[in-house]
Amino acid sequence: MNNNMIIARSERALRGQIWEWRGLGETIAFVPTMGALHAGHMSLVEMAKREADKVVVSIFVNPTQFAEGEDLDSYPRTEEADLALLDAHGADLIYIPKDGSMYNAHHATSIKVGGVADGLETDHRPTFFDGVSLVVTKLLNRVAPDIAVFGEKDYQQLATIRRLVEDLDMPIQILGAPIARDDHGLALSSRNQYFDAEGLAIARRLNEIMRHCALQMERGENVDVARDIAAKALLTAGFSGIDYIEVRSPNSLTVLEGGILNGPARLLVAAHCRGVRLIDNFPVEPH
Question: Which of 41, 124, 184, 212 is catalytic?
């Protein structure tokens, strides 16, 4: 690891470095993560580097966005490998909050975003965006960046954070980075490492089936018919369950039920494969 990358484990160390950079007139981009980093995260770092003078990356497995029975305890934690990867990609500061420092014993505040955060993910994980909104607000307050970068794979999360930042008058530009995929089209995710070879082969069918569904709707197929065909194809491919296959407006995420699309839309999917919950999305652009 070179001597240029700074690791801050306290809020004081983080803010001190941010103030020093601010005093020099440098702009700051921020990439929040939960660690277990991969090429998808690095694409966010690369975008951040293009947009600002300094790049701050946080690593924090946020307990408030995990529901009971989810994989908080088993979520992969690979700090040494994460730091080496960030160093190789030129991140300037890594913020790793000490245990207990993000939520102290007296913490009693919650944040709830409506609108874009309603439905889809919250139909199956009711408190998920409450936890995401809270930790993102705290991290944005601590880092105080000019820009923050989030991946489009978590499309509803990106929309929720944009709503949050606008509603709370935060002077921060939120950028969405294109979905990073493997050579077979599977969206990169820290949880992909849970798959064995057979599970990975099934998971890689998701993007193929989504693309076909989007293409059918672009060619004038009825939305409900295209969704039903995609659902059957996923189950036939070996997926064990489907939380949702929805077609929504690309910005407000309002429901587009039935009929023929006459404008841009977003296809959003959450499905289960070999004990792993996958989410993905794809633009739909009718001709």
Answer: 41
